[in-house]
Amino acid sequence: MARFIFITGGVVSSLGKGLASAALGALLQARGYSVRLRKLDPYLNVDPGTMSPFEHGEVFVTDDGAETDLDLGHYERFTGVAARKTDSVSSGRIYSTVLEKERRGDYLGKTIQVIPHVTNEIKDFIKIGEDEVDFMLCELGGTIGDIEGLPFFEAIRQFSQDKPRGQCIFMHLTLLPYLEAAGELKTKPTQHSVKELRSIGIAPDILVCRSERPIPKKERDKLALFCNVRPDAVIAAEDMDSIYDAPLKYHGEGLDQAVLDAFGIHPAPKPKLDIWKDVSERVHNPEGTVKIAIVGKYIQLEDAYKSIKEALTHGGMANRVKVKVEWVDAEVFDQADAAPRLAGYDGILVPGGFGERGTEGKIKAAQFARENKVPYLGICLGMQLAVIEAARNLAGIKDAGSEEFDQERGDKRFTPIVYHLKEWAEGNRTIQREVGDDKGGTMRLGAYNATLKEGSKVAQIYETTKISERHRHRYEVDTKYRAQLEKCGLIFSGMSPDGRLPEIVEMPDHPWYVGVQFHPELKSKPFEPHPLFRDFVRAAVGQSRLV
Ligand code: GLN
Questions:
Q1: pLDDT of residue 430
Q2: 53 Cα to the center of ligand 1, angstroms
Q3: For a tag site, which of 126, 180, 435, 490 has the least CB within 10 Å?
Q4: Are residues 371 and 354 in the same domain?
């Protein structure tokens, strides 16, 4: 049965709890254990799928089609363990399950209360698959003291009591602010945060303290004394140059050792850290730089494209170069000329997105990349717009567009090269959707297979003709225009296994021009860069040597 590690946060948000959890998962794996990481989010949305990227950053999609928190992306990137639907839950999901059960009469007429009904639902969630792994790491979103987080804290407290002694530990992340005037790192906010945690019955076993500078022994001892943890369980988490240093840094600080000590595991198996040494070495010793433009709409918030940015970094590591990402706002050249803003990049990437705003600019970016032979990677909406660009400017369908934009506006302006998909096959099932359906969870979501054309560029890149990639979209390129577009040089080189849905387009006459209907970035890892990102960056390196 799994041992459980509960990871909570205090003092301020955005401390990097997700990263610390992911790095700890990787370190436990390095010691030969199997792990699974889970995220419990206190907000009332049922899932992040309907939240704006400005609110919540990227939506991370799992193979089994869940729209989850971006921290699950960190978990996958560090552990390589594919996340599942059952690895992410929110208050909204918990409450809606409880209310469904109440309506069904499952509670036999009882009064429904936060304790025990909501807390039991949370505990049942935490337990899912507990026999499958050695360690289950559960990260609680938010910070201690948040009103909506209380049922989660109560549930993990109860959970640790339900389990035999020594099977659960608590790790708390806090911040040690540095006061210039005092010339000191201050421990008081951490003391208060731990006091708050203890007031609800949770005593942390391990403290991870974020700080801008090294924590002197005096402060460590003080924290240990006042927060009632062992001195070697006070772990310093200084700011790092790269997130991929986290496993080695945390190991150096003794985090994994402290965790194993807290569980009483002696002797601890020796860690094998070669993978992370290699990753760190590649991050810190690039032999060159390439500049890639991400032409998007949500560029003020880089978290909206988190996985893409990481996948580009991985592509850089594979080619031993540093990828310098620049964010370009597509709306800037909706009306204007794109060339002045796009000249000088070694590659152009148009990511996924929703709605019409900014799309004319992105179409211009695709055109610029095609005409100037700059490597282009279009992801999801970025592929759809590349097809629309080719339809308009190569196939002469001047009013080519997407049904998505007409539906949004409520009039009909475009020839729908990209149409609203209302029926598709998922294994042996047929899925059906209508225009007015709920927004949540109703897209074509999760892993679907695709068949690649023999001899195509993508078949060479993937080194296979059968792939599986993750999807999140409602609209689809219409195969009606396939012959016309292929005649103009835009080849449909990846299709769904039934041949109905285009998955990949490419331009054989261009050095590197690929559009994919899915999200390859979600499966890239630093120790296993995604083939498309590896090859896109390779092409960008080639481009940078041309100038
Ligand atoms: N808006 C487009 C669709 O729903 C693309 C979605 C995306 O880029 N993830 O098909």
A1: 80
A2: 13
A3: 180
A4: yes
